[in-house]
Amino acid sequence: MKHLSRNRLLRLALWTLAVVALLILFQGAAHRGSEPREPRTAQPASISMDFAMKQLNGEPLRLSDYHGKVIMVDFWASWCPPCREEIPHFVEWQKQYGGEGLQVIGIAMDDYPADAVKAARELGINYPVVEGNDKIASEFGGVYGLPFKLVFGRGGEIVARRRGQAHLPSLERLLRTHLAERLPARKP
Questions:
Q1: Checking CA distances to 80, which of 30, 148, 166, 183 falls within 20 to 30 Å?
Q2: How far apart are CA 157 and CA 26, in angstroms?
Q3: Fold of 53-180
C-alpha cells in the first residue's frame, strides 16, 4: 500500500511540473504580444535612402519626396483579409490627417499588379500605392509577413514597426503624436 501511494505522489508531482511548465511557456508567449520583434540584423530604411519605387499608375515614387511628413508605409496584398480590413481606416486617416502632414503609402505585394489595381479601386484607396517585390521589401529592412507597417517621423526616422493586423486605436494615437511634433531643424 505504501508503494502505491509513492507512485501516485510521483505521478502527481510530474503532472504538476508539466502543467507549471506549460503555464510558463504560454505566459511567455502572451507577453511577446502580437507583434514579434524583427531580427536585429535587418537594416531599417530611412527617408535618406532615395530609391525609386514604381506606383501602380506607372509614376515613380521616392520617400524623400515626403520629407517633413509623417509617413506610414503599409505592405499589403489583395489576397490578405487582415490587410483589406485595415485599408478603409488608412483611407479615412489620409483624408482626416493628410492636411496635418500624414502621408500613407501602400506597397502591394501581389504577384500580379492588376490584382492590386483592382483591390485599390474596390477599397477606394486615396494614397499612392507602389508595386512591391522582394527588393523593395529588402530596402525597408525586410518584411516578415503581411500586413506590415512602418511609421516614419517627420525627420525621416523609423518610429514604429507593426507586423500583423494592427491595434488601430494605438496606431492612430501614434500617428497623431508624431503629427503634433514639429520638423527638426536641418543642419546647414
A1: 30
A2: 34
A3: Glutaredoxin (3.40.30)
Residue 15, helix vs strand vs coil: helix
pLDDT for 52: 87
- Helix (H/G/I), strand (E/B), else coil: 53: strand
Q: Is the pLDDT of residue 117 over 70?
A: yes
Q: How far apart are CA 181 and CA 70, in angstroms?
A: 10
Asked if 178 contacts 151 with a C-beta cutoff of 8 angstroms, the reply is yes
3-state secondary structure of 49: coil
81-97 and 168-180 are packed helices; what angle lies between their axes, rounded to 10 degrees? Answer: 30
Looking at residues 78-88, what average pLDDT do you find?
Answer: 98
Under DSSP, is residue 20 helix (H, G, I), strand (E, B) or coil?
A: helix
Give domain limits for the chain: 1-29, 53-180
The answer to whether the predicted template modeling score (pTM) of the entire model surpasses 0.85 is no
